[in-house]
Amino acid sequence: MKLNRIARVGAVAAVAVLSLSACAANEGTPAGGSQPSDGGTALSGTVKATGASSQGAAQQAWTAAFQKANPDVTINYQPTGSGTGRDNFIAGSSNFIGSDRAYTADEIAAGKFGACATPDIIEVPAYISPVAVVFNLDGVKKLNLTPEVIADIFNEKIEKWNDPAIADLNKDVTLPDLAITPVFRGDESGTTGTFTSYLASVAPTEWPYEDDDAWPVKTTRSEAAQQTSGVEATVNGGKGTIGYIDASRVGELGSAAIKVGDDFVPFSSEAAAELVASSPLEEGRNGGDLVFQVDPAKAPAGSYPIALVSYLIGCAQYEKPETADIVKAYFSYIVSEEGQKVANEAAGSAPLSTEVAEKAQTAIDMISAKK
Q: Is the pTM here over 0.85, yes or no?
């Protein structure tokens, strides 16, 4: 598996620690507002953003709080999906983006980003969440699944819910003689990248594909859906459906506990954080490009092995000072203790650790306007 693809999963240190270092410029000012001498806000203007639908609930909460503290600012974030967001940032139609994977080194080397005054970009982890394997079966809310069984289900090798491969893992559950309908992201998606990276790492025999943001299986009976909300709605609206979504959208759907070592681990933000707690930064990137390497095959005991780390991606330099000021302040708010708490309450994400938040803030401090 390609290491630069593994990096899309990201990293975070221990989730239990919530105290973060706030940017000195924002001390005493809620939601990242810049405080002038008259007590008002110095920020004014509109920024456009697109990207990861997994960040949708968190972005709604972040923008509401930030705009309340900065009433002359508008943050227009559209959850188009990570792939579209990355394309928009290259084209210059988004001032910043959210993405469930970082740009690869090859993508960065390919040329200038249209949104930026220089080729240098800032990429920081902002949103850490499990990717849950969810299903819709009458009377069944929890199942145990191994990575090999998950791979065979989504590769359309296991066709019925009462297949012995599933039944043997769930002897206390009455499983119906019902067809399985896998649901996948039809749009290019970092969530798909996280999910396929997991399968390629832990079940390479059953999953003979490279990890990819585009769904790799040539399907005969699976269903495609657009964005996180589409997968959620399709699984909810079907019978015998199964899909993968950001854990913030599980709702009343059934969910799988996934085998790690000798145990089956249900999803939780804490368990997902365990997976990426000690991951190194990818080598060869500049100081503002914080991309981490995680291998799901090395998931420690008790961790949840499918963890999405979604990034904020912006320019190191913007053409307009007002754009640079807003993006810098907004990013600083998101990685702050307050911003991470807001996301946790709105979406159940795992707050950044002190160490990761401090590194992210150092990268964000590099954002400026072209002189």
A: no
| CATH assignment of 131-268, among 3.40.50.2000, 1.20.1440.230, 3.40.50.1970, 3.40.190.10 | 3.40.190.10
Annotated domain spans of the chain: 10-128+272-369, 131-268
Per-residue pLDDT band for 41 (boundaries 50, 70, 90) equals low
Q: Per CATH, which fold does 10-128+272-369 belong to?
A: D-Maltodextrin-Binding Protein; domain 2 (3.40.190)
Per-residue confidence (pLDDT) for residue 212, from 0 to 100: 83
3-class DSSP string for the chain: CCHHHHHHHCCCCCCCCCCCCCCHHHCCCHHHCCCCCCCCCCCCEEEEEEECHHHHHHHHHHHHHHHHHCCCEEEEEECCCHHHHHHHHHHCCCCEEEECCCCCHHHHHCCCCCCCCCCCEEEEEEEEEEEEEEECECCECEEEECHHHHHHHHCCCCCECCCHHHHCCCCCCCCCCCECEEEEECCCCHHHHHHHHHHHHHCCCCCCCCCCCCCCCCCCCCEEECHHHHHHHHHHHCCCEEEEEEHHHCCCCEEEEEEECCEEECCCHHHHHHHCCCCCECCCCCCCECCECCCHHHCCCCCCCCEEEEEEEEECEECCHHHHHHHHHHHHHHHCHHHHHHHHHHHCCECCCHHHHHHHHHHHCCCEECC
What pLDDT, in 10s, does the model give residues 83-122? 999 999 999 999 999 999 899 989 999 978 999 999 999 9
Answer for the pair 295, 87: CB distance below 8 angstroms, yes or no: no
Confidence label for 188 from pLDDT (cuts 50, 70 and 90) = confident
Cβ atoms of residues 161 and 256 within 8 Å: no
Q: Environment class of residue 268 by beta-carbon count within 10 Å: exposed (0-12), middle (13-18) or buried (19+)?
A: middle
Residue 318: is its pLDDT beyond 60?
A: yes
Report pLDDT for 277.
Answer: 67
pLDDT band at 16 (very low <50, low <70, confident <90, very high): very low
Domains 10-128+272-369 and 131-268 are alike in CATH topology: yes
Nearest in space to 194 (alpha carbons), one of 125, 296, 274: 296
